């Protein structure tokens, strides 16, 4: 393998590794309880200044959860971070001693701020052209 081929192979490998090794940042979720914060109601107040907060305090946090109705024994809307996918479903819950049945819903998402911000940035649009360019240059150098 000549020096040109070695350099081309090294450059291609560097680009591929650079694309695969991205920095990991914790997901950011809205974290609130409608019992304590009015802006946290089921119908989100997009005009509020409440920003998503980092979930880096939670080990392997990868999901934002919005729970409405009856959740953990309380009625309201709750937004929080989770390391588990809790799914997307609604159910009717009746606690012992209650005359009422409550509709409870869980919504799980994997993007910063759940429904109020753009999704996680994908590096595919940056890395794919770089990898293809590196492969093309490598191929041209091998032919030379």
From TrEMBL:
Top-level division of the source organism's lineage: Eukaryota
PROSITE patterns: PROKAR_LIPOPROTEIN (PS51257)
Alphabetically ordered keywords of this record: Glycoprotein, Membrane, Signal, Transmembrane, Transmembrane helix
Gene Ontology biological process terms from the UniProt entry: regulation of synaptic transmission, cholinergic; sleep
Cross-referenced InterPro entries: QVR-like (IPR031424), Sleep_regulator (IPR050975), Snake_toxin-like_sf (IPR045860)
Residue stretches spanning the membrane: 123-141
Positions in coiled-coil regions: none
SUPFAM superfamilies: Snake toxin-like (SSF57302)
Signal peptide: 1-26
Keyword Aminoacyl-tRNA synthetase belongs to the record: no
Pfam entry (one): QVR
PANTHER family reported for this sequence: ATILLA, ISOFORM B-RELATED-RELATED (PTHR33562), BOUDIN-RELATED (PTHR33562:SF18)
Protein name: Putative omega-scoloptoxin-ssm1a isoform x1
